[in-house]
Specification:
44% of the residues lie in helices and 12% in strands. The chain has helices at residues 15-24, 36-44, 48-54, 61-65, 94-104, 108-117, 131-142, 186-195, 239-255, 276-279, 283-287, 293-296, 301-318, 322-329, 339-358, 361-369, 378-390, 400-410, 413-426, 456-462, 472-486, 503-513, 525-529; strands at 8-12, 31-35, 75-78, 84-85, 89-92, 120-124, 149-153, 180-181, 202-203, 211-216, 265-270, 440-447, 489-497, 518-520.
Amino acid sequence: MVRRRQQVGCITYTNVAKDEIISRIQAHPAVRPETVHGFCWSILQDFQATLRGFVPQLPGWPERLEPAGGIGARRVHYELGYPSVSEDQVTIRHEDVLALMIEAMALPKFRSVLTARYPVILVDEYQDTDAAFVDALKTWFLDKGEGPLIGLFGDHWQKIYGDGCGSVEHAALEVIDKNANFRSVDPIVQVLNRMRPELPQMVSEPDAPGEARVFHTNAWPGARRTGQGGGHWTGDTSPEAARAYFSHIKERLSDEGWDFAVGKTKILMLSHSVLAREQGYASIPSIYGQFNDPWLKKDDPHIKFLADHLEPACAAFEALRYGEMFESFGTGMPRIRKHLDKVAWAETMTALMALRNTGSIGDVIDFIAAQPHMRLPDAVEEREKKLADVGAEPVEGESRRVTQLRKLRQVAYAELIALDRFIDGHTPFATKHGVKGAEFENVLVVVGRGWNKYNFAQMLEWSDGGPPADKVEFFENNRNLFYVACSRPKVRLALLFTQILNANALGKLTAWFGAANVIALPADPEVAQA
């Protein structure tokens, strides 16, 4: 393959996974590990004339290209960052790459070059790969019985991202089950096997000690939360009780020998009622009402920019890793070309580091906007402009997004830092060091309400008879996230349910974990703790 200038295309879900594969194969030249965007661009970049025809058809690009008189002969460039149009270059967005790849795969010449360069394509965590991209692979290669040898590695029960393809079925694919579990001890694997009997797993060390237990709060005598203010809270304890039960279970497990050091135990929050106040970001969730995706999944452009770009850039600056700092900001920021540029960046970042601790989110956004050598993403600038057009004071009938941004700007930036740390460390949806594919000695899963897309007690009730026909996707999303959380630990697994569990839900947990491992917590956790 090396002599033929061919490679195995190894598509991974994250840059962390890509780097791990490169390390394991000692950067062998016959294998090219890449994220799906990096892999697609490795082919697309050589088809500049084709790209110049496709880019103007993508959403948002006619408006960007019109002031420049169209795309012309500009080179199409891709690097994680902001879309831009310069005199000789067009820089496309992250989301444009897959759209271009799907269009290009319809061209026979493109498919021929792809196959010649990558006769083997392996896709890791295939269930989370973009559904439209996988459909294109099926349409142009599997359906036709031509093209590269394609291997899909993953598990459709571990699909937890909304745009993933999930299960892939095709007559050209041969299913090879992996029955060995080299991660978890037998008590945990037995739970997984009862949860999923069609895929029996065997452990490498059957006699290794461990545990898998469920703790529930059905004995709590207080008034359970209702649908008022958002039905996704129905059945949960009060926030105060949830925090008390969380403290109780941590102390109990610590007394039993659990080590809650960061490197030993992972806490996964399948609930939003427990730690917002203690973690220091209590103001942010309330801005979005019953909708959690804007802040939890960083769908809000301001939160996404600050958490995924500015915070990593500040961490890199503090660690004197300036290359990583610019990489975090993306391609929209001017680079250092002379000594004065270096001085300007150093002074700006020093001031910004201090402002993060003392100012509001609005202060930080305004500071960046005022710097000649820095810029905000287009989506952030657009929302700032809409707010400015409405004015400093709330007006009747203003859009929900304007109201949300007005409130968000007033929040202390320290809360954004706290939110970023929480998302990064305590939820399976973490983006920088997420738990997908990771493993930990101990895992404590806190299960409750607060997500409009998740109700784990309902999922348990439906596990035997199956969900209603119009709730299949809802059921599978809940089941998959629950399964992923339960399959992370190596030695100890504990689940704390703060939401009420009816007889059917308790029965299902008893069937999976065993009666001795489903434990009712006291009515008053604080008294028991004392």
